[in-house]
What we know:
Helix content: 25-40%
Strand order of the largest sheet: 4-3-2-5-6-10-9
Structural class: alpha/beta
Radius of gyration: 18 Å
Order of helices and strands: EHHEHEHEEHEHHEEHEHHE
Number of strands: 10
Strand content: 15-25%
Amino acid sequence: MGLCDTRKAALIMPNTPRAFDSAATGYDQVFTDSEIGALQRGAVHRHLERTVLGSKSLSILELGCGTGEDAVFFAERGHTVTATDVSTAMLDRTNSKAEARGLGDRVRITPLDLQAPETSGLDGPFDLVFSNFGALNCIDSQALHRLAGHLENLTAAGSAIVVVVMPRACVWESLYFLGQARPTAAFRRFSKGPVAAPVGPETVRTWYHSPRTITGAFGRAFCRNALVPIGLAVPPSFLEPWAVRHPRILAALARLDRSLRPIATLAFIADHALVHLERT
Length: 280
């Protein structure tokens, strides 16, 4: 989501909960309420409404709920949500947002470290497991496999998993940073190891996962149902100042995004890739 620091994570020892705690207060202003953030989140929500959400009330597990914008989206449509995050501050904001909108009875918050999901004490089965905008980029491929194994025990046949991750290439990023004569930043997503990315005043280790990595990690019990580019023509969120100055161009890019969204392979080079899996 517009993380631009390209230092190798091995050079620092980030504290992930503290990093997201520090970002909680300003996160909605930076991404949720921004023009780019609204367009990308709207694309994710439209996919969910077309494919997963219906008249039946679902039990939903959200991984990395952030400030609760998606949890509230689900709850407003009559679903019950177990919203999890490693950050206490993010969970507090999720709870406050749900209570303020009269949805406290449909949103339950609980701490969850994606590096150790087996310690969560969660009870399934869940009809939908959802993770938006790069929460799974905070863990490496080995942790992805462990998470997939744990989610087997929390889902049943026909359950859906929809995750939105930052893939290993982004055309917008590469072109923008090459134009700035910053080749390291332009190709940071190609790094084999983690990159230290800024979150508020802190940094977190970030791994860029291709859709194939996600599908492979979950392949034992889940099959891929759909792959959708999110933020292909619409730029990454760090270009929000430019987007605000050029609303007509952004609107045209949003229209182009919608027309290109059915082309699954473009998810490999978009800002985010939506991977929709189904429990077998």
